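Re-run with default settings, no changes from the original entry. Doing this only to confirm the output is reproducible before filing.
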Amino acid sequence: MQTNKKRIHWPRVVSICILLLAGCTLIFAFHYLKNNPQNVDNAILPIANADDAPYWSTPAIRLKNDVAVLNAALSRYCGSSGNAFYVLSSTAASDHPDDANLKGPYADAMLDMYERSPAYYGSTHATKPYLVPQAVACNGLKLASEEVIITAFENHNFDSSSKPEYRTAGWEGFYGSFPGSKGLVGVSLPGYSKNADHATVYIRSNCGRLCGSGFTICLQYSDGKWKVTDSLPAWIS
C-alpha cells in the first residue's frame, strides 16, 4: 500500500517564520518605546505614581529639561544687544524666597527647587549637583565660577573716574574683572511639580549698590515647549 506523504514547502515555512518574528519584534519595540521614552529635546516624562522619584528615567533627560526651562526663564538676558552681557554664576542660587502665594503644582515645584539648591546639599557636596548647566550660557550671559566672581569682588582698586554707583567695595573690582558687563545674575536650578509639567525658577540680578531685583519665574510645559506663565517679583533694591 502506498501512502501519500505531503511535501513540506520549506520556502513558505521560512516566510511564515520571518513574518512571525517581525510581528514579535514590532510588539516588543512598541512596549519598549512606551515604557522607555526616547531622549528628545524638551521631552518630559509622565509619572505613573506621584510619589515616584526621581522624575526622570535618566539624568540626561532631566538635564535637557533643565536647559530648556532655564533658557526660557533667562531669555530676556540672552537678547542683550551688542557686546553687553551679564555674568551668570555657575553655582545655583539658593536665596530664593518661600513664596506662599504659589499653590498646587507650582508650590510643589518650589519645594523641589529648594531641594536642588546648595543650601539643601551643602556647598561642600562632593559631586556639586547644584551647578548651572554650561549649555545655558548665551551671547548675553557669560558663565563664571563662584570662585572667580568672589575673587573679582575682592579686587578693591578704586578709580575716581568710575560711575558713582560702582564706587563701593567689591563692585568696582567686579566690573574691572568683567569689562563690558551689565551686572551679575544668579539662577536656581528648576524645580518641577509632581507630574513634571510645571516648573519654577528663581532669578536674581545685581548691578551695584542698591541696584538689584529678584523674581520667581513660573513655567508650564505645553505644545512641546516650556513656556513662562508668570513672573512674580520677590524683592527690589
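The chain has two domains: 6-35, 59-236. Residues 88 and 143 are 5 Å apart (CA to CA).
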